[in-house]
Amino acid sequence: MSDLGSLVEQLRSSRGFAHKRDIGAALGTLVNSLPGGSTDLAQAVAVGDDCAAIPDGDGWLLFAIEGFVDDFVQAMPWFAGWSGVMVNLSDIAAMGGRGVAVVDALWARGGEAGQAVLQGLAAAASAYQVPIVGGHTNHRSDRNGLAVAVLGRARRLLTSFNARPGDRLLMAVDLRGAFEDPHPFWNATAGAPPERLRADLALLPELAEAGLADAAKDISMAGVLGTALMLLECSKVGAEIDLAAIPRPACVGAEVPLLRWLQAFPSYGFLLSVRPAQAGAVAARFAARGLACADIGTVTPGPEVGLHAGAERALLWDLSAETFIAARTEAAHA
Questions:
Q1: Which helix (H) or strand (E) holds 84?
Q2: Domains in the chain, start-ordered, CATH in brackets?
Q3: pLDDT tens digit sequence for 28-50
Q4: What is the reported pTM?
Q5: Which residue of 16, 74, 116, 175 pairs with 249 in a disulfide if CB–CB is 3.0 to 4.6 A?
Q6: What is the pLDDT of residues 296-308, one digit of tens each?
Q7: DSSP bridge partners of 52
């Protein structure tokens, strides 16, 4: 097997991909549990976007929620609290919105065990200037656990359902960070100047409101390629992606190993599907703030998602043969 083929196999069997594929099973259970054979989940935006969107006056209410696995909360309680706010605000931004308020649910083995989580939550809420307005606390649990939800508003949506054949795939990412070893978390937010964090995040709704983009997704724990699969599946398209074009940080004088970076959660990272005429203007806005933004591929009519390394090509996924998050079911319609 070639190096590229081996990389594809490792990605397909990764924990990040597996977690995202669980969405399909959950969606199937919800659909099959609806009365009368209905497949309508009453979504204002179909299942597969970064958060729910509900029409509201001249814009949209956005609801995002994240739950965190026990081992992460146990190993990194302060960073788990920080991430609870940060990742939800990234999801809100990925849909063209701005955060309004935060709520959390915390389970801990005593008050002291949950203190660091709460301190991380408070630090992020202060840095991003989005208040914590309520939640649920249980200090008598047999384990530490955390879930955080954020309410936001958008004037104009970015969505996973608007990628079109011929679009340019742009990856925007903050390379000014470091890995939280041994975890796959690239931390470019905790410790950064709060004013910079807020202005960097505001780029996404500004792009939406300027009409420069209408299709985007936050790069999640599935990494940039797993995120691409989710976006492309929702839009019923494919893509050809150039691995050499993916922005990658330096690590001890050399680039971070490709496989590690492809499986990383970058803390500030977005994938945008942009009309070719707008791609330069979009990239320039990120570059003006010191953020890396590169054209990493072309959206195709589908259904294949191919990876390129020099002259070599490998198939990452055939979305017509195998769903990723099952966004093509009858319940998930644009």
A1: helix 77-94
A2: 3-33+159-318 (3.90.650.10), 52-154 (3.30.1330.10)
A3: 676 666 665 555 555 555 677 88
A4: 0.91
A5: 175
A6: 999 999 899 999 9
A7: 63
